[in-house]
Amino acid sequence: MTDLAVRVKKLVSERLEAKQSPLPVVYEDNHLLAVCKYPFVLSQADGSSKLETLNLERMYIRQESERQGRPKLGNIYLVACHRLDYTVGGVLLLAKTEKTAKRMQSAIKSRQLAKSYIAITEANHLALAKLKAKEIEEGLYHLENYLAKDEEHLKARIWQASSSNVPANYKKASLTMRLLAEYKDAFIWQISLETGRFHQIRAQLANVNLPLLGDYKYNQAQAQKSTFVSPLLWAYELEFEHPVKKINIKLQAWPEAFCFQAYANFPYADYLAIRSNH
């Protein structure tokens, strides 16, 4: 277990002991619960002993109902509307009812759930120059590839040959990326997903020679020189129509000081703190 995973586990325990939600609540009503998932917490159980969002929040809901004198009996319905990778933190949306879950799944399939991320990559100026061909407006780039999941190595593979002869197991993946800043030898990007493929952001950025810092799976050369223990990727915003109230909902969660990476002197913390206040 990494030092960051240990710190996250300790923080979650402290929050539960203080009778707080184990993961910070971003939004809650009778239908939905959105939390700020920490890195090194699973979105849903995978059979391991790792911390897992749904069990943590069910535990808290039961604890709160007992504290209020209205104990919940039986199973507590709570499902993840989408997933975030184990090492990625940010806004995670959960459904409290089966009807809400079905409506959100339908919205996701029809691409009505907009997801935006903050990504920190190597400051590769040659790669940035080559991106000009994919620029759709100043500072905004569009990437489109065909991806397949490599089950053996748990990686996304990009089809590099002609797009007119793509195997059936490769699915279209597209995103836009806006350069927010060049800061302390890194590029800081806002990524907006147009599709939701396995490891899509990690694979597509690495494919244009702008790998995420800390992402050794898609850039093994970094392992020799980087101190980061996981990819610098954060799911900071969700926007969608509420499945019951039919109003537009925009949820944001900027990384807490320790949460993007648990380093005493995380080099990009001051920039992210400035952005979070705007």
TrEMBL record:
One record GO biological process? RNA processing
Note the Pfam families from the entry.
PseudoU_synth_2 (PF00849)
Keywords from the UniProt entry:
Isomerase
Looking up InterPro entries in the UniProt record yields: PsdUridine_synth_cat_dom_sf (IPR020103), PsdUridine_synth_RsuA/RluA (IPR006145), RluA_PseudoU_synthase (IPR050188)
GO-annotated molecular function: catalytic activity, acting on RNA; pseudouridine synthase activity; RNA binding
Give all residue intervals belonging to the Pseudouridine synthase RsuA/RluA-like domain: 31-206
Q: Which domain of life is it from?
A: Bacteria
Q: Which reaction does it catalyse?
A: a uridine in RNA = a pseudouridine in RNA
Q: Which family does it belong to?
A: Belongs to the pseudouridine synthase RluA family.
Q: What's the protein here called?
A: RNA pseudouridylate synthase
Per the UniProt entry, what species is this protein from, by scientific name?
A: Amygdalobacter nucleatus
What broad taxonomic lineage does this protein's source fall under? Answer: Bacteria, Bacillati, Bacillota, Clostridia, Eubacteriales
